[in-house]
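Write out the 3D structure for:
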Amino acid sequence: MKNHFELLGLAPAFALEPAQLDRAYRDIQSRIHPDRFAHAGESERRASMQWATQVNEAYRTLKSPVQRAKYLLALNGVDVAFETNTAMPPDFLVEQMELRENLESARDVDSLDLLKADLLNQKRTLEAKIAECIDGRHDYRSASDLVRKLMFLEKFGEDIGAAYEALDA
């Protein structure tokens, strides 16, 4: 069975151009979409549905930086144990506490916009470091620590989204 990168015809790398991923996905979908096999035999329709399901899963995984990094680490034999290994460097935890305090004190859209902009910058910086670890140095252990940090930031982004919704309510 092909891995997600092979399935989409892409080189396995963390630094993946979103437009390239989208193009590869659309190209494959146009060839295997079940609608194209509506008048085909049962086995061809079933095969088309299975391919479409695998391609959709591959696309969803590779579209998300966190999921793509976790997938690449797994492909390279790194068991990152994200669920059980929650230890983080103290300085990162202090930063997280400060971010949470800033979120709790944000009372308007402008404050949330500033937090969101800062978060996006932090995520971009972290994603560049992950790309360097995975694609450049093949240092998967260091990358796994960075991916855990990125997961924290993703969760914080969700919390910012919830804060926007709370302001609208």
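Residues 109-137 form the longest helix (29 residues).
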